[in-house]
Design brief:
Radius of gyration: 30 Å
Number of helices: 31
Largest sheet: 6 strands, antiparallel
Strand content: 15-25%
Strand order of the largest sheet: 1-4-8-7-2-3
Distance between the termini: 42 Å
Helix content: 40-55%
Shape: globular
């Protein structure tokens, strides 16, 4: 897993100092761990080196000079966060090697771990800064970390677990010499890349000193040691097994696995650390290995001996690029080289680097899920992409050289994020996709495609007499403008889907076929409600179009919702017509929530439409939640083509509230919250925990009054906590049936509000994010019957509930086919109700807030939760620790 990062409250310093041995004799007898060691540029600037005493550590927690007690800037408030705990731990195999090796091997492993910690600290020293100016608007570089590292050898269960708690004081010295709080975003943003530097350092050091070889990385970038048995790995993970067993027991008793429950179990099952002498400890570890059938000396010899595997890899690739396996760094067990040999880094063959860079710069690389990336993300990606045969050859300095070379050769600088002081990059491949997308759309501006007569438009308006002036202008623009690609920006609450229904009416009066599509199944349901026939997801539509282009379509076997017959002249409906193409010159394709489409997917869609001569209308708002995939295409099209914009907010009734929503949409969070405060709609609490309790209390009061409310939270673990708490409140109040149906880690009862997680539109009529409540359960047949929001009843069979195909998981093993619907994330809320969603949405920068919104789709209430972005930072007057806005 990645390095853990935790906030520390005042008074927590005792946990670390209690573990310190008072003297060498205590340490050697197993009664305590080694003292903390000072780390970081700010520590060095204060002249702090070597061991940190318990008294000095207490001063550090109070933001004082550990030597003199002089205050480093202002003193922390009682509720301030004095420090962070960043935990570096190697792969479990490294700790097993430490436990079973002789003294030389153990010392080499311990030194490799410390080399990793030093490399991570050196990296963070260059990345972590502070903020200056009014409201902290300017990000400036700090002097580095003021930190103390506590290295421990064992887990609470007495297993080998080499790890270091790097306690980082929430202080750094700015360029003006003043001490200020750290910019917490720097630690959060660079935690993963610091962990990559840590891994590169200990892996290269162990390969150099012991000849250790490495396997392919897991999803966090950690690599197992080649030859280390899985059974031995599990046998020395008793603490993990204790936690898992207790979690399973808690789940069997009816509790749901949430982050809060896991944290509770970790603390509840935590035994006191045992005190064993090193000799006793190592003897026990070796006996445990033998009990599992492994002779420690032979095992260590097998996993540390230098083999020809890496040399063979280098020989195989050297002939292709002219590099020699005899070049510096070209053989296993050699020291890492920071320079290039024959144009390479660390002696890596050029072909290896080229192949790795090709993957990173391709569609499934750094821009698979985001349009841009930063250098820190390249560092982690390079470390994970290294072939197993050469993983131990690349140290932290080489990792940075590879990242910088990738940025120089395969990336394009596109912008700077001034908020966190870093530059953003994109790949030429993605920029080329977006460039072709824009050029193709611009070239279709004068096509006069999908044009309606004045009579058709007037007839559509007459049939929809409540249409507003801005909606009517939008309808005229897209039905009479004639552009091959039109863009509509519909802000939240402006009634864009209703206006699209009016445009659909006009096109159909003109004899045009209108096809609706959207990124999600639930959004297609909303299009269907406005008269769009057989709307489908963009993925389904692209599948049809790709199949058609490849000549593999079999019309007579097409799904019913995609099969239609076109009437030929002189034929009636009883005669056979020729099969209709998915798109043609008489088709208008309307794509709702287009801002959530990735650029590559959008480019494919526009390419198909251009080939067919079909008109495309893209509808969305690029200042609401962006695409999860790499997607700047919609924003680029809006800027190049212009857009018909819906401006009147029809959802919020009060003028001041409409203005507040618009401020939030534009990213002006402070101005928006000021408006809520001035109108008595902002309630402050002292802590985030109190805020969650207040939100839950408000939700429960609203629910008991018959109002259907959903809590919107920023993170999925918070959603899980709210969902569990809401279900427990309803269960205690007697709202839920006695029977339960367990679906993976969730238990459901009759009466529960639920949300579907998979699309099954053709078979069951439910989409991903369809909502309803449970009306019946059949535990024996594993079936769940729902009453959906549209009044329909549907029974979800065992196959829907339990089958989890790989294409659906998309690399996320925690996805649920069905979940509780009392709370959700802001991103999912936007997808769930693209037409009727209430309250302001998360913005382009996604301010940390949760929204609680009513869902009887009239005038809406909303609840905003705001957290301070800068831990320990100054609060604005009257803001309190956290706040919520409510009607």
């Amino acid at each position: 897993m990645a390095a853990d990062l935790h906030k520390l409250a005042a008074g927590r310093e005792g946990y670390y100092t209690r573990e310190i041995a008072k003297n060498r004799e205590e340490y050697l007898s197993g009664h305590g761990e080694s003292p903390g060691i000072f780390h970081g540029g700010s520590a060095h600037g204060l002249g702090l080196e070597g061991e940190c005493s318990a008294e000095a550590f207490k001063r550090l927690f109070a933001w004082q000079d550990p030597r003199t007690g002089e205050q480093l800037g202002r003193a922390p408030r009682a509720d301030a966060m004095p420090a962070w705990d960043l935990v570096f731990r190697p792969h479990k195999d490294v700790s097993v090697l430490y436990a079973l090796g002789d003294q030389r091997t153990g010392s080499a492993v311990a030194e490799a771990h410390q080399a990793g910690v030093r490399a991570a600290v050196a990296y963070l020293d260059q990345q972590v800064g502070t903020r200056t100016g009014r409201h902290g608007v300017e990000h400036v570089q700090g002097e580095g970390l003021l930190a103390v590292g506590f290295t421990h050898r064992t887990s609470r269960a007495g297993d080998p677990l080499l790890h270091t708690h790097l306690i980082i004081a929430n202080r750094t010295r700015g360029p003006d010499g003043a001490w200020r709080t750290l910019d917490s975003r720097d630690l959060l943003n660079h935690r993963a890349s610091a962990d990559a530097m840590y891994r590169a350092a200990y892996q290269s050091e162990l390969s150099r000193s012991l000849g250790v070889r490495w396997e392919a990385p897991d999803r966090w970038g950690n690599r197992a040691i080649t030859g280390m048995p899985e059974e031995l790995r599990r046998g020395f993970s008793k603490r993990h097994e204790q936690i898992v067993a207790e979690l399973e027991r808690q789940e069997a008793s009816g509790k749901h696995r949430t982050a809060k429950l896991v944290q509770h179990v970790v603390h509840a099952t935590r035994p006191p650390k045992s005190h064993e002498t090193p000799e006793t400890l190592y003897d026990r570890w070796q006996q445990e290995a033998r009990a599992l059938g492994y002779e420690p000396e032979r095992l260590v010899r097998d996993v540390t001996k230098v083999t020809r595997a890496r040399e063979q890899h280098l020989d195989a690739t050297a002939g292709h690029d002219g590099a020699s396996a005899d070049a510096p760094g070209g053989t296993a067990g050699q020291p890492e080289h920071s320079g290039r040999s024959g144009g390479t880094v660390a002696g890596l063959p050029e072909r290896t680097i080229t192949t790795m860079f090709d993957r990173l710069a391709g569609p499934e690389g750094l821009t698979e899920q985001a349009s841009t990336f930063a250098r820190r993300q390249v560092l982690g990606a390079v470390g994970s992409e290294l072939p197993a045969e050469v993983a131990g050859m690349v140290g932290p300095a080489d990792l940075e050289r590879l990242a910088d070379r990738f940025l120089a050769e395969r990336a394009v600088s596109v912008m700077a994020d001034h908020a966190v002081g870093e530059r953003r990059y994109a790949t030429p491949e993605l920029l080329a996709v977006e460039r072709r997308l824009l050029e193709a759309a611009v070239s279709r501006a004068g096509e006069q495609t999908g044009v309606c007569s004045h009579d058709s438009v007037r007839a559509a308006f007459a049939a929809n007499s409540t249409i507003g002036a801005d909606q009517a202008a939008m309808v005229r623009d897209i039905t009479q403008g004639g552009q091959g690609v039109s863009v509509v920006v519909g802000k939240a609450g402006t009634g864009k889907t209703y206006a699209l229904g009016v445009a659909r009416h006009a096109w159909q009066l003109e004899g045009l076929r209108v096809v609706g599509a959207a990124p999600t199944g639930i959004a297609t349901v909303c299009l269907d409600a406005e008269g769009f026939e057989h709307s489908r997801t963009v993925d389904a539509l692209l599948g049809e179009l790709d199949q058609e282009r490849g000549g593999r379509r079999r019309p007579h076997r097409r799904p019913a919702q995609l099969t239609r017959k076109r009437q030929l002249p002189g034929q009636d409906g009883r005669q056979d017509g020729r099969d209709e193409r998915v798109l043609d010159a008489r088709t208008v394709l309307v794509v709702d929530e287009a801002g959530m489409l990735g650029s590559r997917k959008l480019a494919r869609l526009l390419d198909h439409a251009q080939d067919a001569g079909a008109k495309v209308v893209l509808v969305g708002d690029d200042q609401q939640l962006a695409s999860i995939e790499a997607g700047g295409g919609f924003r680029g099209l809006r800027l190049r083509l212009g857009a018909a914009t819906l401006t009147e907010n029809r959802r919020q009734a009060q003028p001041w509230e409409r203005e507040a929503v618009e401020q939030l949409r534009e990213g002006n969070v402070d101005q928006s919250l000021d408006a809520y405060r001035q109108h008595g709609r902002l309630v402050a609490t002292e802590t985030p925990s109190q805020l969650k309790e207040a939100m839950l209390s408000d939700w429960w009061s609203a629910f008991q009054q018959g109002r259907r409310v959903a809590i919107l939270a920023y993170r999925r673990d918070e959603v899980d906590q709210f969902n569990t708490a809401c279900q427990q409140l309803r269960d205690q109040a007697g709202h839920l049936g006695a029977d339960r149906l367990q679906v993976r880690d969730r238990s459901f009862a009759v009466g529960d509000q639920v949300v579907c997680g998979k699309n099954a539109l053709t078979t069951l009529g439910v989409a991903n994010a369809s909502r309803g409540h449970v009306v019946a359960l059949d535990a024996e047949q594993r079936q769940m019957t729902l009453q959906l929001e549209d009044g329909r009843q549907v029974t979800l069979p065992r196959e829907y509930l339990d089958e989890r195909p790989a294409w659906w998981l998309r690399g996320n093993p925690d996805r649920r086919t069905i979940d509780l619907a009392y709370a959700t994330t802001g991103h999912k809320a936007q997808r769930d109700h693209p037409r009727r969603g209430a309250g302001p949405r998360h913005q382009r920068r996604r301010p940390p807030m949760a929204v609680c919104r009513r869902q009887p789709w009239g005038r809406q209430d909303h609840l905003l939760q705001r957290r301070h972005a800068r831990a320990g930072g100054a609060r604005r007057p009257g803001a309190g620790g956290a706040g919520r806005a409510r009607r």
